[in-house]
Specification:
The complex is a heterodimer. Chain A contains 21 helices and 18 strands. Chain A is α/β, with parallel strands linked by helices. A five-stranded parallel β-sheet of chain A has the order 2-1-3-4-5, with helices on both faces. Chain A has a four-stranded parallel β-sheet with strand order 14-15-16-17, covered by helices on one side. In chain B, a hairpin with a 2-residue loop joins strand 6 and strand 7. The chains are: A alpha/beta, B alpha+beta. At the A-B interface, helix 9 of A face helix 1 of B.
Amino acid sequence: MPVESIFPRLEPVLPRVQKPIQYVGGELNSQIKDWDEAEVRWALMYPDAYEVGLPNQGVQILYEILNEREGVLAERTYSVWPDLEAIMREQRIPQFTVDAHRPVAAFDVLGVSFSTELGYTNLLTALDLAGIPLEAADRGEDHPIVLAGGHAAFNPEPIADFLDAAVLGDGEEIALAITEVIREWKAEGRPGGRDELLMRLARSGGVYVPKFFDVTYLPDGRIQRVAPNRPGVPWRVDKHTVMDLDQWPYPKKPLVPLAETVHERFSVEIFRGCTRGCRFCQAGMITRPVRERSITTIGDMVDTGLKESGFQEVGLLSLSSADHSEIGDVAKGLADRYEGTNTSLSLPSTRVDAFNITLANEFSRGGRRSGLTFAPEGGSERMRKVINKMVTEDDLIRTVTTAYENGWRQVKLYFMCGLPTEEDEDVLAIADMAKRVIQAGRDATGRRDIRCTVSIGGFVPKPHTPFQWAAQCDHETVDRRLRALRDALRRDKEYGRSIGLRYHDGQPSIVEGLLSRGDRRVGRIIRAVWEDGGRFDGWSEHFSYERWTACADKALAGEPVDLDWYTVRERDEVEVLPWDHLDAGLDREWLWQDWQDAVDETEVEDCRWTPCYDCGVCPTMGTEIQIGPTGRKLLPLSVV
Amino acid sequence: MPEGPAPAPVIQRLRVRYAKRGRLRFTSHRDISRAVERAVRRAGIPVAFSAGFTPHPKISYTGAAATGVASEAEYLEIGLTETRDPARVRADLDAALPDGLDIVDVVAAGQAKTSALADRLEASEWRVRLDGVRETDAAGAVAAFLDAPTIEVERLTKKGRRRFDVRAAVSALEVETLAPEPDRRAAEAADVPCAILRMVVRHTTPAVRPDDILTGLRQVADPAPPSPPLVTRLAQGPLDAVTGELADPLELDRGTRPGRETVPPSGDDAVTARGPAPTQSDPAAGADVAGARS
C-alpha cells in the first residue's frame, strides 16, 4: 500500500508557525528509504521539541542501526509545538515523520525514547495527532506497536495503558531483535494478530507488555501483586546490556540539523554505565556495569564523525567522563590531532576528584575554552556521605584553585536540594562552599573578577535506586531552603556579588516525582492533564502545577491514594513497588541495605577499583565490568 | 590564559552566490550560517578565523532573504588562508551542503579598487506566486500601484511600528503572462487561479520587502491572496537605470583576474555580460521537485 507524503499539505501552513525549519527534515545524513521495499518500518520519536530531540544520541543510534539493515526503514518524529498542533487539528494533518513526512500511523512500530517522565503528555499528543487510539486496549490490527524505551521506561507503569510494550536498557540489540520478530510475524501473514505479535515479544522476557500483567491493590492503596495474566509470560522482564561497545561504534554519520538545537556538537559515548554509586543517580544504577569504549575506537569515531558532520566541537559523553581508564591519553591524543583546526573538545560530566587540570588544558588547546562545571551535589560533608558523593570540600577547593591558577575565571557548581535527611543547614552550607571557592580563586590569582555560579535542582527519588523508598521533600520546604540560601548569598557583602545562583521552584519536581514512582493509576492523571491542555511539561512556560494537582485530585477521587501518597511518603521494605517486576539487575536487598547505609551516612567505594560490593547486576545479567587500560595510543591521522 | 599564535591571514576572498530552494527556504539566516560553516569544514576549505577567545570563521553574508522566502541569488564572502580554485570550491561546497542549499557561482574577489559586494547589490528581482488570485485581478492591482505616486504601508520593524513609502523603491512590477509553468499548471489543474508577479525592488532603508509591496497592492486594489504567497528572489545586483535590469554583481570580479586591468564596466557591458541569466533558472520547479521528493 503506497503511503503518501503529507508534505504538500504541511508546506502551505509552515509560514504560519514558529521555526518552520524544524518540521522539514533534510538534515545532513538523514535518509529516506523506499517504503515498499521495507518489511519492517520504525517511526522513532523523541517526545519533545525538535531542538531538544534531534541531538538525542539514543534516537540517532537506533535510526542508523535500523536503516543500515536491509528491509528495515526508520524515520524520526518529534513533538510539534502547540502552534502547529492547532493547525494540524484544524486541517487534519496527521503526526508525521520529518524524513519523508509519512504519517506515523502507517508504521509498524512507534518507538518512543523517554529520557524524562515529563514527556508523557507529549506522547498522548503524538498518538492523538497520529490517529492512534490513546489506550493500547483500543488499538486494532493495523495500528503501530507503541513501544517505550529510555531511562524512564524502567518504570513505565504510569503510561502502561498507553503502551503496547516497553524495553529496558540498551537499545541496539533489542531493537534489531524486535525487528526480526515483526518481520517473521508479517512474513507468516500476521498469525494471531496483534496479540500474537505481542506474545512473541513478551515470551522472551526481554520485552515488557503491560497488558499481559495484572496489578492488584491492597485496601490501603499499596500494590498487592503484579503478575502475568497468561501462560508463557515470564514473571520478570530483564534489561538489555550491550557488551563490547567497540562493536557498536554509533553514530557513525551523525545527523546535522539545519535548525538550531540544544547541542551543536558531535558526541561520542566513551563509556556506558557508572559504578560510583551516587545514591540519587538513576542512570548510574540502571546502566551498570561500566563498559568502556577503547581509546582507538573513540579516536576513529571522532575522526569519522567530524568528517561526516562538519561540527566544530566534540563532546566525550558518559556519566563521569574523567573516569575513563585512558582519559588522559584520549584527551592528549585528540588535542594533538586537532591542534590548530579550531576544533574544541568538551567533557560534559566531570567529577571534582577525578578532574585533573592537565586534562582541562588539553581540552582548551583547540582554541575554545569551555566552562568548568563540578557537581558536589550536596552542600555539607554529611549530605555528601548520605548520597555517596565522595568528594570532600578540600578536594573541591584544591581543584578549583588549580583551575583558577590556570586561567579560568569562573566555575559552575551543581547541587541538589530536597535530598533525603536534608536539613536547612545542609543547603545553607552551599553558600559557605561557594564563598570558599571564590576566596580560593582570589588567593590563587590575586584578582577580584573571580566568579562562581551555583545551579540547584530539586531532588526526585527514582526507581531502581536506593532512594526509591525515600520520601520526596515537599516543594514548600525546597522553596523555603532555596530562598534562605539566596538571602544568605545576597546579604554577603564580601562574596555575594561574585556568586550567581540559579534554581527552579520545587513544584515541577513533585510532578516529576509522581510520574517517576507512579503506578498504573497515575495514567488517569496524565490523561486528564493532557485532555485539559497539558503539553511540554518539561518547559516552565508550559508547565502548570495547578493543572496537575487539580487533575490528580479528580482522577484519584475515591482511591485511597493521592499526590502526596505517591511523592512525599516514605515506603517500607516490604511494600511492592510498581517496578519490582522490571529487572535492572540490582539486587533488591542490596538496594535496601544501601538505603540504610545512606541514612547512617556510610559510604560505598566504586567497584571498578575495589572489590565487588554485590549490587547484583553482573551475575544477574551475565555481564561484567569492561575497562582498560588497553595501552594503545591515538595515532596522528595521515593527511588524505 | 595561554596566548595562541596570531591566526593565519586572509590570502584570498571568495564571493559565493548560493540558492535556497524548495523546503530549505524555511531556513533562517542563522540556520544558513551554521550550515555553511559546517559545510566549509566538511569540504576542507581553508577558511580563515578571527582572532580572540572564540575564533569565528571569516564568512560574511549580505542581506539574506527572509525565512520562508526562496532565493536563487544570495551572496556571501569567505576569507581563505590559502588560494583555492573557485570552480573547485563551488563543487566541494555544494556537495557538502544539504540539498536545497546550492552553490550557484564562486569567484575570487577582485584584487584592488573593486567595490564591496554589498554595495553592488542595489536591487532585487522577485517573483511572487499568488495562489487563488486571477491574473486579471492582479493586473488591475499592478496598474493601480504603478499609477500611484506614493503608497504608504505600515510594518512592525525592530524600531517599532514604522510607516514608509513602498512605491519609490519599485523599479519594475508586472504580472507574468508567459507560457504556463509547472507550478501554475498544477494550480490550474486544481482549479485554483494563480497569478505570478515579477518585481524589481531597490534596496532602501527601511528595506521594502515583497510583503510590503503586497500590502501596498492590497491598499490600491484587492488581490487578497488566501495563503501566504510563495516568494522567490531571482537576482540581486547593480540596477541599470536605463533598462531597469539587474546585472551580475560578480561580473566585476570575473573581470579582475590577476594580470588584467580593472575595467569599470559601462552600462552596456553590465547588461550584456550577465552571468547565468537568473530568469532562466526555475526556482518554482525546484520547489516542486523538492516537495515531490518527500
